[in-house]
# Entry
Amino acid sequence: MSAYELRKAALVSAVSGPKREIQYPLKADGKARYPSEIYGENVFTLKTMAKALPKPIFASFLKQRRGRQNLDKNTADSISHAVRVWAMDRGATHYTHWFQPQTGTTAEKHDAFLSLVSNFTPGGEEVTPIDQLSGGQLLQSEPDASSFPSGGMRTTFEARGYTIWDTSSSMFVQQGPNGTSILYIPSVFISYNGDALDEKTVLLRSNDVLSRAATDLLSILEPESHISHVYTTLGTEQEFFMVDRNMYSLRPDLKITGRTLVGQLPPRHQQLEDHYFGRIPSRVMAAMSELELECLRLGIPIKTRHNEVAPGQFELAPIFEEASVAVDHNLLTMDLLHKVAHRHNLRVLYHEKPFKGINGSGKHCNWALSTDRGENLLDPTVRPETNFRFIIFLLAVLRALHEHAALLRVAISSSSNEHRLGAQEAPPGIISAFLGDQLNEVLDAIEENRPLKNFSVPQFQSIKVGGTVLDVKVSGLPHIARDLTDRNRTSPFAFTGNKFEFRAVGSKQSPSFPVTVLNCAVSAALHEITADLRAQTGSKPRPSDEDKLTVIRKYIKLTKHVRFEGDNYSEAWVKEAERRGLPNIASAPEAYPHLIAAKHVKMLTKETGVFSESELKSRYHILNERYTKDIIIEAETLSTIIGQQILPAAFEYRKSLAETAVALKTVGIEGGPEIETLEELTPLVVALQAEFRKLVKVLKDCLEHEHETEDSNKHALAAYTDIVPVIASVREAADALEVVVADKYWPLPKYTELLLTI
Ligand code: ADP
Ligand code: MG
# Structure
């Protein structure tokens, strides 16, 4: 079949191929099971565990889980036995330590429960098969670490890496093929001497550090409330594209790099603004609801589904959970959706910018802090008398952002998210915070020690913020901050009523590192504020309201520059941000050195203790290496597509036009439209050929010079400055050709086919 015929066949099968439907689970009486009944049925929850274990064993586990005591052999053995039986009753034949290496995805290696026990009898060796999971096997396993990115730590500590059960996340069973299933043991992945080789270890550490910093501050602010634990909550709004799988399989660029390296926008894409919240296409809907069922079984609380702005773009959002569990669940959801989409002959694209010219995809990370009593520290409506607390925690986040904006920029930087930052809906490379008019006015009024102004709600007009202290307490901040009409979609970091929304996070990346960095920066800010508050309080048993206001005013002033309410995409903001001294970091390779800059290293190591210096260095290398590899892979893929598919297609079309012209001449017709098209086509082919040569050359140069320096950032910068612009100019030349070459000759499914056929 010609490339054209393949394209058309893919189109036909996309439209008329068989549609998959599954039976929603029913009760014995034939009525539908309720989602709440299915929820978590494949999870070895604490409740399940409590039922399966003797009481003292369960109690000892709970103690260990809160970090008070090590898990002893007896407890581990009992749990491993209980979970194995539970899992095997659900068809499990294997178990796996499931972990999160620094690749953005998850990793797993399966081991069978089957073991052989040898008995030596006088008659010879007798082998008995048994099913087994020992306490030791549950707690720890040693996968070969040498093939995961370690950024140089591998050479220092040999290839040894250990996966260790993360007891804060429940084990679960996932269905495998042929009616079997697998027991998943959520794990951390560390090196021989305890360095984090993964994303989760540092996230868990940052949670602990933040909890200590927050409870320390609360012990001064509200000693009577005895809050002993604070945890970060996270709700990830996951955006993605869905395309037909046959069509996808004809696009080597999508398959290899996750994005289209060439392609013209169709005449209608998102400009009619008719896709957002529109009817979900039926095939996608079938896949989403199948996914949701799987999520239910795994206790992943998916709440919302809708069309996004671009055609073919969608979003799923869960109910927020404790951050490390939310990260596990986000990664699981991504993986499950990938598998489920496959069954519907769809392909899910997580790349931040799979299509040029239309919206990219993000993963908005909704983030807040919750006490052990379930009170959201960023919720101004909890109790009016907690307004001081609310403002102080709000300022701690602003302080974190102000001090470590460049670091947060690092945490969201990748070759793929690069295409999104600043384009279409995406927040730009300058990190600032949006609070909304009303909250902004509250901070301004406190700073200037004046009453609030310009509020439509009459009760606020008489409030004297900062006059007598009591006024702040009764100022009705709750109503102010909960105004959800105040939206700014251009902000990379927005306060949305009772949480911050970190919007710059990319759809493809794990939310783990951005949240870890945010946790660390907020912890450092909390330390700082707590120290100031202590100093201000002096020998008094607790700070007076005036003491608190003094500290509050200080931090309002310190963090003012990071607040921005206007259009983040405007040129004016770029200038204004520069005037304010906020970093505007254009690219990932320019961002990465900030990870090892003194100020941020000090915060991440000495001040919070979440990272060691070697962990940061290794991460720095991994990020740089990944960037360079991504760009080289893109350049190689593009060069193959141009050299082997697009140029030959253009040649063929040109040949057919020329042959037609010759044939026409023999019957006495000279010139004419064929010749005109030929004349139009020729310079475009020449231009593409020239760009293609450039690409081949820069790629060759880059690979040749690779060995001249060990500096991974230099390589990344070279890829960014030398290769990225050529990839763009080759694309431009190819796209110009796509408009002229007859459809019949074009070898790749076009944007119309990819975006509008699901
Ligand atoms: P919006 O659409 O205004 O952003 P939603 O209520 O739809 O708000 O929430 C979006 C995401 O934010 C959801 O995943 C939700 O669970 C999450 N979220 C809500 N409250 C919190 C919170 N306190 N901490 C973390 N995430 C939250
Ligand atoms: Mg939101």
Notes: Residues 230 and 371 are 4 Å apart (CA to CA). The longest strand covers residues 230-244.
